[in-house]
Design a protein that fits this description.
By secondary structure, the chain is of the alpha+beta class. The chain folds into 3 domains: about 200 residues, no CATH class; about 70 residues, Transcriptional regulatory protein pf0864 domain like (Alpha-Beta Plaits, 2-Layer Sandwich), CATH 3.30.70.1380; about 60 residues, Ubiquitin-like (UB roll) (Roll). It has a 6-stranded antiparallel beta sheet, sandwiched between helices. Strands 1-2-11-12 form a 4-stranded mixed beta sheet. It has a two-stranded parallel ribbon with strand order 3-10. Helix 2 crosses helix 3 and helix 2 packs across helix 5. The longest helix is centred in the first third of the chain and has 21 residues. The radius of gyration is 25 Å and the shape is globular. The protein starts with a strand and ends with a helix.
Length: about 350
């Protein structure tokens, strides 16, 4: 791919020093569809991981545009979205992550802006329709600034590479960089990226609580509903017995979820229960222990253990019940023997 030049310039926004990066493109660039762009990436000399992630981002972008325009991805002609500068933006972002050795990306809530924007389809409201389609289940906000602060390209990149949107995670900061925009806004127009090493111990995050009261459903269904909610990404599911109107016994179904999962989990509750409404509230800060899943070898086979890191204390291991149950049934030995053996081996392995 040719017909463009890259420029880097040191500058300042609201007194903050950073780097302004621009892509200058020849005006006679052809319009490209998804296949054209994927073929350019495929034939490049980039690593397989960069190719795969870049193609995934463009596919999501094409799917969003196709849905908005009620057509197929192959009939989408990428104008400003698929121009050379956006190809450079998307592929360049993925290359940067690989060069930095980034293993996990987390983002703040996204500041959307407001007003209108000019594009190939005319004047559109901010956020652009494709941007909103890509940002489903992502926490966003606007302070009324009359400018497009999240583009479809930016939304496609962030929602593909970022696993969480919210507060900054617990980490040891190594480096911070500022990429400056070209427009002058009421706020500093830059993107700040912080590179760090994840810290073990107590972390904070923001979660949503979904609750509903149920008193007219077959209680045998609760087991299936809980399994379904967990399979769709619920952080926790529990039920509390209550007495409802006319002294009818019922339960409060409570679901803890990350903000981006609220919509999908709400649909599960509506589809699988008899409820007519769901209460959604936000827990501003939740303290959680750092944990990881490891596998330990026992004389009867492998058992997964959940390892929790408690600051100032040795690591605590909790064997997976299902693994212990399976071994106990197959070997004909007490489950508590399997559990204690796996727990001891896990703590020895983690110490």
């Amino acid at each position: 791919m040719s017909g463009y030049t890259l420029e880097f310039e040191k500058s300042k926004k609201k007194g903050i020093a950073g780097t302004h990066f621009s892509v200058d493109v020849n005006k006679d660039q052809p319009h490209r569809n998804l296949s054209d762009i994927l073929d350019i990436i495929k034939k490049s000399r980039l690593s397989d991981s960069v190719k795969e992630m870049s193609q995934t981002i463009f596919r999501r972008l094409a799917e969003a545009e196709a849905k908005i325009h009620d057509t197929t991805t192959e009939k989408i002609h990428f104008h400003e979205v698929g121009a050379v500068d956006s190809i450079v933006d998307i592929v360049g972002a993925v290359i940067g992550l690989e060069m930095l050795g980034v293993q996990k990306v987390q983002s703040s809530r996204l500041h959307m802006g407001s007003g209108t924007v000019q594009c190939a389809h005319g004047t559109l409201p901010v956020p652009a329709p494709a941007t909103l389609e890509l940002l489903k289940d992502v926490p966003v906000y606007s302070t009324g600034i009359q400018s497009e602060l999240v583009t479809p390209t930016g939304a496609a990149i962030l929602t593909t590479i970022s696993k969480h949107f919210g507060e900054m995670p617990s980490m040891q900061i190594q480096k911070t960089g500022y990429g400056l925009g070209s427009r002058e806004l009421e706020i500093p127009n830059f993107l700040r990226i912080t590179l760090g090493v994840s810290q073990k111990g107590v972390e904070s995050d923001t979660v949503q609580v979904l609750e509903t009261n149920i008193d007219d459903m077959n209680p045998q269904f609760y087991d299936y509903i809980m399994e379904t909610l967990f399979s769709k990404g619920a952080l926790d599911v529990f039920m509390t017995p209550i007495i409802m109107k006319k002294n009818r016994p019922g339960v409060v179904l409570s679901v803890l979820a990350s903000p981006e999962k609220v919509s999908e989990l709400s649909n599960v509750i509506f589809q699988e229960t008899t409820t007519l409404g769901i209460r959604v509230s936000e827990i501003k800060k939740r303290k959680v222990l750092s944990r990881e899943i490891q596998s330990v070898e026992t004389e009867w086979g492998a058992v997964r253990v959940k390892v929790r890191s408690i600051p100032g204390m040795k690591k605590v291991c909790s064997p997976e019940y299902d693994d212990c149950k399976k071994i106990a049934e197959e070997q004909g030995i007490p489950i508590q023997v399997v559990y204690q053996t796996a727990k001891q081996k896990g703590e020895n392995q983690s110490s």
